Amino acid sequence: MNFFEQQERARKNTVKLVFLFGLAIFSLIMTLTIALAALIYFQEPNAASYDLQQQVETSLPLIAGVTLVVFLIVFLGAMFRRVQLSGGGKTVAESLGGRLLNTATQDPQEQRLLNTVEEMALAAGIAVPPVYMLDESSINAFAAGFRPQDAVIGVTRGAVEQLSRDELQGVIAHEFSHILHGDMRLNIRLVAWLYGILLLGFIGRMLLNSLRFRRRSKDDKSLPVILALGIGLLIIGYAGSFFGSIIKAAVSRQREFLADASAVQYTRNPHGIGGALRKLAGYSEGSSLRSAAAEEYSHMFFGQASLSGLSGLFATHPPLKERIARIDPNWKPSPSDASTSTIQDSAKNSANVSNAALTQSGFAGLAPLSTPMPAKQASQDSMEHMGDPDGRHLNYVRELLHQLDDELQQAAHEPFSARALVYGLLLNQQSDIREHQLEKLAETAHPDTFAALQGYQTRLISLDPRLRLPLIELALPALKQLSPSQYQTFKTCMDLLIRADNRISLFEWSLRKILTRHLEPSPSKRSHLRLHDCKEETQRLLWLLAEAGQMQPDQVNAAYHAALKSLNFQEKMTTPERPGLTQLEKDLDKLALLKPLEKPALLNALVICASHDGKITANQAELLRAVADCIDCPLPPLLPNP
Known about the structure:
By secondary structure, this protein is mostly helical. It folds into two domains: 20-358, no CATH class; 391-519, no CATH class. It has 26 helices and four strands. The protein has helices at 3-43, 52-84, 89-95, 108-124, 157-162, 165-180, 183-210, 222-267, 270-281, 311-314, 320-327, 340-360, 375-384, 391-402, 406-411, 415-425, 431-444, 447-461, 468-479, 484-498, 506-519, 535-549, 553-567, 581-591, 599-610, 618-630; strands at residues 99-100, 131-134, 141-144, 152-156. Strands 1-2-4-3 form a four-stranded mixed sheet. A hairpin with a 7-residue loop joins strand 3 and strand 4. Helix 1 crosses helix 2 (52-84), helix 4 (108-124) crosses helix 6 (165-180) and helix 25 packs antiparallel against helix 26. The longest helix is centred in the middle third of the chain and has 46 residues, at 222-267. The protein is globular, with a radius of gyration of 28 Å.
């Protein structure tokens, strides 16, 4: 199942989930209203003389009223919790007691964790997420957020201390599967709906507590009704939570199997995720967490985060033995699995297997960065692995980072110097324009940031174009730490540099679009459009991409029409005018509303257009990356020798 099918499946699963929750709530409401109707019926002195029709007519307003009130309570409670979680993964991590790791940390274990997350993010084609450390001795991890733009990775201290690098990478790859396959949004919706149901129980308890302060009277007939309503709401709330937890556990268990399998594919190393699961199976601390919020978010974790008496019924994760057996059918549990010597041997074997697998894949030594890209094959390979990168992409990213200046990499991890890197990448190649940019920047930028720019300026101007986007993506976690006022100054400086020559290049637009998309909160919108609803927007985008790589007008025209032909638009398509970047912003905002299964055709047309002449320029590659990012399609890096 490819990335787009996974996205469509996640969307349908959400609809099914809402239906199941609604059905469970409706069943419980009917039980409550029937109980209330029976109570009122038997309270009447002449109850025996009531006929059935009269009783039904009397009860209907009650049933309708109670049903409406209960549904409103659940809905408003769920929306309230959803608003509380609107901060995305950051809110979840902080409620679990997570500590945001300093991207410039000097701690070797924290550096290893951050490097592992960076490699996986670049290989998958998504922005590097912030990483949180949970001060727990158990082995566990989670990914949380609504979208990749607000996603975070959380890892327990026990996982960092106990797992080898390959095992830690397997766990991180497992969590990236949840990011790429749309599980995160479903997980947060589960939290919100369960909160709404549990709110019924809280209100029922409040009603019962209020009876202690009421004056009792023989003529007060409301007392039994309030008592019945309070008990009913209490029962509905906790019974609903019971059934909701079962639904949550069932949904989560299936997604865990997929994430384990994806981790093997991403790393091409079954001993990584397999070793982590084996070590967890024999680890005395297990995967349980002490945090009070662990139960609410239990379905988001790598391992079972909380235990209950009915662990099989409420288990959000399959048994460890079953998960390990699916990865390694020949595995047999052994008491020595968790011993120190076994852990060390496992780490060595994992490293050897990982290196062997990557060597067999043909990527033991990559071509230099200056080697031209084999355009069509590279871009199609990248699109086929969208949401499903493999060991080749991971190894290519490692080689890419190896060729990136160490000092620039370190600078990307600190907010002051990360801003300086962005400014340096926007400096013009022409010395007179560059001097004008620097004069304006000195007046606006923070003095420390401007001073840092002086040390990186020469290297950034001559930086290989294929290293520009990886460097920006490495800097994103540090840039996310900017305060609102710092970000506004940063954005002002970016715009100042871009407009210094009175024109905006595609690289400048792509860089700014990627940064603002990940650093500014944007509302989530429902994907409902078909590609035929976006013909004009598609035309303008294809024309712009064709012009970005072709020099001759006839080549531009040929690439544009070849791409249009793949879309099977029935009407005759005319050549559009080159869109301005403001128009391009509007076009991409509309294209972002395409249904998941409508996006492959658009991306395929972009690939055909960009690779029509057999090569892909740096401008085209950056524009492709920016467009894919805007429509929530994680595009892995283009491989030099796919």
